[in-house]
């Protein structure tokens, strides 16, 4: 399943790029289903910022299912590369469980509209090779991601201001 989503965000492109690199702090606070994000590895190579993030997203598992579905079953590594020349982030996800049937990758492109407005276009492809259930899971994952991403235009300008006040930008 593929999807594309576009948002205009009322903040400066450079500030937004820096903000989105604060994933450990930002994602669990902003996205209701993300429990934790840990930066496992980071490296700068010229104009590129390469990361490996470990994410656990068990925040929306119904309490009765939490006995069956352990947090590590909904955890993954995200292998990402941000290209500062292109304002582009490309990533690939490798789940801790069922990685032989699950594949996900994407691209996030940031575009300066003006000094205080930025466009963000995200293209994602999710493929779960399990008959019938795979398509249902792809749809649920896509819907959850889109719900999370739709929170950003309203929150990111405020987050940028808060980060500035704290000296993080």
Describe the 3D structure.
With 169 residues, the protein is α+β, with helices and mostly antiparallel strands. It has one domain: START domain (Alpha-D-Glucose-1,6-Bisphosphate, Chain A, domain 4), CATH 3.30.530. It contains three helices and seven strands, in the order βααββββββα. β4 and β5 form a beta hairpin. The radius of gyration is 16 Å and the shape is globular. 16% of the residues are buried.
SSE map:
Elements: E1 2-9, H1 13-20, H2 23-30, E2 36-45, E3 48-56, E4 75-83, E5 88-95, E6 102-114, E7 117-128, H3 133-165
Antiparallel strand pairs: 1-7, 2-3, 3-4, 4-5, 5-6, 6-7
- How many independent structural domains? 1
Low-confidence stretches: none
Query: What is the number of helical segments per DSSP (H or I, 4+ residues)?
Result: 3
> Could you tell me the strand content as a percent range?
35-45%
**What's the arrangement of strands in the largest beta sheet?**
1-7-6-5-4-3-2
Per CATH, what is the topology? Answer: Alpha-D-Glucose-1,6-Bisphosphate, Chain A, domain 4
Q: What order do the helices and strands follow?
A: EHHEEEEEEH
What is the C-alpha radius of gyration, as a whole number of Å? 16 Å
Beta-strand segment tally = 7
CATH class group: Alpha Beta
Architecture (CATH level 2) name: 2-Layer Sandwich
Distance between termini? 36 Å
Average pLDDT confidence is 93
Molecular shape: globular
CATH superfamily: START domain
Percent of residues in helices: 25-40%
- Largest beta-sheet characterization: 7 strands, antiparallel
Question: What structural category characterises the helix and strand content?
Answer: alpha+beta
């Amino acid at each position: 399943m593929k999807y594309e989503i576009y948002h205009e965000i009322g903040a400066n492109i450079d500030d937004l790029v820096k903000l989105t690199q604060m994933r450990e702090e930002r994602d669990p606070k902003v996205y209701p289903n993300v429990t934790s994000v840990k930066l496992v590895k980071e490296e700068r190579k010229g104009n590129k910022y390469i990361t490996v993030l470990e994410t656990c997203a068990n925040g929306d598992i119904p309490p009765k299912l939490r006995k069956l579905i352990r947090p590590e079953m909904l955890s993954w590594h995200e292998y990402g590369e941000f290209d500062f020349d292109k304002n582009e982030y490309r990533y690939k996800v490798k789940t801790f469980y069922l990685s032989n049937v699950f594949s996900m990758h994407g691209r996030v492109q940031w575009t300066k509209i003006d000094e205080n407005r930025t466009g963000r276009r995200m293209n994602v492809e999710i493929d779960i090779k399990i008959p019938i259930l795979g398509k249902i899971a792809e749809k649920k994952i896509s819907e959850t991601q889109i719900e999370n991403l739709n929170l950003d235009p309203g929150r990111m300008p405020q987050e940028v201001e808060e980060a500035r006040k704290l000296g993080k930008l």
